[in-house]
Amino acid sequence: MTLKLPFKQMDVFTNTRFKGNPVAVVNCLNIDESEISDEQMQSIATWTNLSETTFLFKPTLRECTYKLKIFTPANELPFAGHPTLGSCKAFLQFTNGNEIKNVIKQECGVGIVNLTVDDGKISFVSSSNTFEPINDQIVEEIRCCLDTQFIDTPLLLHTGPEWIVCHVKDAQTCIDLKPDYQRLRNITKKYGYTGVIVGGAKNNSNIKEKLSYEMRAFAPGIDVPEDPVCGSGSIALIAYLQGLYKFQTPMNVDITQGQCVSRKGEIYSSISFDEKGIAIFSSGGSALCIIDGTINI
């Protein structure tokens, strides 16, 4: 039997139509999760051919607002940033929820992700942001793929996706990168990484007040050569910067992304601290609905 389900395509991290990062969202809130298989969801994600396609379900955890499953054209992800924001916005529209002030708890592959809705902008707090060093051989392989120099040692960040974060001289160096996608695909698949995040500071960055960064995200190993605007990548970048600069007071980090693929993404990230002084990382932005209809499954 054919399932006919509500469907939206959202544009995330932008206030300008067609300048953010799209995500397809299928509303499965009114069906049982058993009525659609992982194979069907993967087929849909492969067909939409977007970096991610998501599926909203009723939560299995009582404290959560909904459950989200996220698929790339190649595989399922435990978490991803821009699909989380776009899916939250779609959920609010599907359910006529409050887009001015709201708190959402998303159940997904990394557990519970807390989201805040404030005057139309949605932000999420990362529940996973540990990092570890990578060996010199891998660093050199990645450096050769990007044909650039790093100003600090790259690290592996666990933000749900497994991102290698690389820090380059400045924003223009980041923009000028011309990766060897095939070599990068082979390396990331070989070592089991999602991809590579590259960040470079803008001229107006001030380490004592606010940072401004240009960022790019390369994930050819999961069939996303360059992600236009990447939420989990922004968390990886600011966690890396916290490890690098050891901020003791809250810091805002404004990130732009997408210039090299004709987009204009804006991510508003922040580093704050709990009562024990442990860093808390959040990222957010705007999202727009571009397509509103149904999908036959």
UniProtKB/TrEMBL annotation:
Active-site residues annotated for this sequence: 52
Can you say what this protein is called? Phenazine biosynthesis protein
Its GO CC terms are: chromatin; cytoplasm
Give the source lineage, highest ranks first.
Eukaryota, Fungi, Dikarya, Ascomycota, Saccharomycotina
Which molecular function GO terms apply here? isomerase activity
Q: Which InterPro entries match?
A: Phenazine_PhzF-like
Highest taxon of the source? Eukaryota
What gene name does this entry carry?
Answer: TBLA0B03010
A single GO BP term for this record reads: endoplasmic reticulum unfolded protein response
Q: Mind telling me which Pfam families this protein's record contains?
A: PhzC-PhzF
